[in-house]
């Protein structure tokens, strides 16, 4: 086990002030192919988003904005999302104060720009899913599904039930995918708890997390639990180590937990 990569070092807190921020990169973390950015805009401000080598999947976690792609404009509300291939650009204009989490990974010219409305009325299927049963039920909405065209990323929004577990039983996909959980809608002093471990059958470290906190998962197990009355809600970003591992069915459960 690499002690320099101890799970106690896996939490990153993103700023809430206006600006564009690099939160997680291969240069500042144990992740090799995953980037996390946060964009905060005050009402009326705009930002040109473009990355020359990264595919990007962004989700609005607060407020509303207008997205301009080429000559096309579209309004996006809370939890709406967009996919932007490398070398392409969008202009984001805040219609009210807004915050956007953006996941990135290596682009291999396989995806095309699209937006997705957050719609939990969709029937259960590729985009809208329910995972598990009480006390570890979570509702999942794919912002970039395995079935969507992309290079390395699979991303989505997960919300557990109040005071309950998510991502249970503990599972890992170390050989195939790394991941980051970006938490939202958990205002301090409320918190959820992100359990991180490289060892089956153990919880090496527990991170209290609130809105704006991001926890990387370069390896190992990563269940979460909300404090009483609190939903564990997060934008998760998975990046495949190789294109053929861009799949959602590669998780291996910890045999010590049912």
**How many individual helices?**
0
Mean pLDDT: 97
CATH level-two architecture:
Sandwich
Structural class: mainly beta
Strand content: over 45%
- Annotated CATH homologous superfamily: Jelly Rolls
Number of strands: 23
Strand order of the largest sheet: 1-20-17-22-14-13-12
Task: Note the main sheet.
Answer: 7 strands, antiparallel
Following the backbone from N to C, one meets helices and strands in this order, namely: EEEEEEEEEEEEEEEEEEEEEEE
- As for the CATH topology, it is Jelly Rolls
Q: Span between N and C termini?
A: 25 Å
Residues in helix, %: under 10%
Number of domains: 1
- Broad shape: globular
CATH class: Mainly Beta
Low-confidence stretches: none
Q: What integer value in Å does the Rg equal?
A: 17 Å
What does this structure look like?
This protein is mainly β. It has a single domain (3-253), classed as Jelly Rolls (Sandwich), CATH 2.60.120.10. The chain has no helices and 23 strands. A hairpin with an 8-residue loop joins strand 13 (138-144) and strand 14 (153-160). The model has no long low-confidence stretch (mean pLDDT 97).
């Amino acid at each position: 086990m690499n002690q320099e990569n101890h799970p106690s070092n896996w939490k990153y807190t993103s700023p809430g002030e206006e600006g564009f921020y690099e939160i997680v990169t291969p240069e500042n973390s144990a992740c090799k192919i995953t980037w996390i950015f946060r964009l905060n805009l005050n009402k009326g401000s705009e930002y040109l988003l473009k990355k020359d080598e990264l595919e990007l999947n962004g989700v609005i976690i607060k407020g509303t904005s207008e997205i301009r792609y080429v000559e096309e404009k579209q309004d996006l509300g809370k939890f709406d999302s967009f996919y932007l291939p490398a070398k392409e650009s969008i202009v984001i204009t805040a219609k009210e104060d807004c915050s956007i989490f953006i996941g990135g990974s290596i682009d291999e010219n396989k995806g095309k720009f699209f937006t997705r409305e957050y719609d939990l009325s969709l029937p259960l299927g590729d985009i809208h899913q329910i995972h598990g049963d009480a006390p570890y039920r979570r509702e999942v909405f794919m912002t970039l599904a395995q079935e969507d065209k992309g290079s390395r990323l699979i991303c989505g929004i997960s919300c557990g039930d109040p005071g309950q577990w998510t991502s249970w039983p503990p599972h890992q996909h170390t050989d195939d995918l790394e991941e980051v959980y970006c938490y939202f809608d958990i205002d301090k002093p409320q918190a959820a708890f992100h359990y991180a471990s490289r060892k089956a059958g153990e919880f090496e470290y527990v991170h209290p997390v609130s809105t704006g906190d991001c926890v990387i998962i370069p390896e190992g197990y990563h269940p979460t639990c909300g404090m009483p009355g609190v939903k564990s809600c997060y934008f998760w970003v998975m990046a495949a180590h190789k294109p053929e591992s861009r799949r959602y069915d590669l998780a291996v459960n910890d045999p010590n937990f049912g």
